[in-house]
Amino acid sequence: MDGKKLAQEVKAELKQRVEELWTSKQIVPRLAVILVGEDPASQVYVRNKRRAAEKIGIKTVDNLLPATVSEADLLDLIYEYNEDPNIHGILVQLPLPAHIDEAKVTHAILPSKDVDGFHPVNMGHLFMNMPHSLPCTPRGIMELLAAYGISPAGKEVVIVGRSNIVGRPMVALMLNADATVTVAHSKTKDLRAVTKRADILVVATGRPEMITGADIKPGAVVIDVGVNRLADGHLVGDVQRQTVEGVASYLTPVPGGVGPMTIAMLMKQTVEFAEKSGQDGY
Ligand SMILES: NC(=O)C1=CN([C@@H]2O[C@H](COP(=O)(O)OP(=O)(O)OC[C@H]3O[C@@H](n4cnc5c(N)ncnc54)[C@H](OP(=O)(O)O)[C@@H]3O)[C@@H](O)[C@H]2O)C=CC1
Ligand SMILES: Nc1nc(=O)c2c([nH]1)NC[C@@H]1CN(c3ccc(C(=O)N[C@@H](CCC(=O)O)C(=O)O)cc3)C=[N+]21
Question: Which residue in the list 11, 113, 114, 116 is annotated as catalytic?
Fold first, then answer.
């Protein structure tokens, strides 16, 4: 499944919507990105986001804060963006340094500007199937499946991983799409027996190539969320491509699968928020 190509298509459509937004309301979508510390992988994501935004016509306001920044200063910055009517989306790159309480930061972002969909209010709405904002990675996966004509309705969907960023919101989206959902994690007994049941398998563990051809049902659709940089600089997923390719009906590559879709969905959410701005929020 070619996430890179689909992401290009999504971004081309967004570019038009951004132009329309300017013509009809003179609004430029603005996204504030906050990165704390100098994690090189995170810097790559921030750069990719900025590049994508520039192409679409979204303005990004990047804040690269030192790892030593205090929690109070970070919260103050978020409060400023909450109040600023010209900022439509706020994203704080995770993980944060240990001295900063991640939950406190996530909760500080105004739900109506929470482009990641990580605020408990947005998570709650998502689980009740009345979402305001959708976490970008799971949403990108749903759009990929839809583009390939794969409907989760009635299917056995197994999600490996239960993080707040990927696994948990993925459960909600799949349930909302009428799948029969199983969630596996590090305490799951006999993981292979569980993954082998899946018609659609979503793997988000951060364990390089842990899922092999022996772990999947022939013909399964396999979504590899993992982005793992090996010591030699090589990028691999959580799925072993060589052994899975011959068994699965579809597989998302790494790179070029879920990652580019995540960025496209972040852009989409920002444009959607800008389009809604001025209307009644909650
Ligand atoms: N492509 C993209 O857009 C994105 C990619 N990623 C990538 O996806 C991967 C996962 O990210 P994230 O969800 O944030 O990771 P986390 O580390 O937050 O969560 C990993 C999850 O996998 C589970 N897990 C770990 N090891 C095993 C195992 N051996 N067997 C079964 N389950 C296991 C953990 O279980 P437990 O809860 O029990 O600890 C946990 O629930 C990473 O490689 C990350 O880089 C992340 C976000 C976006
Ligand atoms: N608040 C927050 N929101 C996030 O969405 C978030 C986060 N924090 N912290 C880190 C993870 C990780 N993540 C990725 C996004 C894009 C690619 C991506 O574009 N990957 C490219 C390759 C990138 C490369 O070459 O390094 C690909 O898979 O083709 C990867 C990973 C978002 N995350």
Answer: 116
Annotated catalytic residue 16:
no
User: Does residue 234 sit in helix, strand or coil?
Assistant: coil
pLDDT digits (tens, 9 = 90+) for 59-111: 999 999 999 999 999 999 999 999 999 999 999 999 999 999 999 999 999 99
Task: Please state which CATH number belongs to domain 25-116.
Answer: 3.40.50.10860
116: annotated active-site residue? yes
Question: What is the C-alpha separation between 78 and 282, in angstroms, rounded?
Answer: 18
Is this model's pTM higher than 0.95 or not? yes
Vertex 142: Cα angle to 138 and 145 (nearest 5): 135
163 is in an annotated binding site: yes
Instruction: Delimit the domains of the chain by residue range.
Output: 25-116, 136-259
Find out whether the beta carbon of 165 lies less than 6 Å from any atom of ligand 1: yes
What are the strands of the beta sheet with 200-203, ordered from one edge?
A: 180-184, 156-160, 200-203, 221-224, 250-251
Residue ID of nearest Cα to ligand 2 atom 22: 255
- Ligand 2 touching residue 94 (CB < 6 A): yes
Q: Is 28 annotated as a binding residue?
A: no
4 is catalytic: no
The interface predicted TM-score (ipTM) is 0.98
The residue type found at 279 is: Q
Nearest CA to ligand 2 atom 14: 259
**Does the domain made of 136-259 have the CATH classification 3.90.76.10?**
no
Are 25-116 and 136-259 equal in CATH topology?
yes
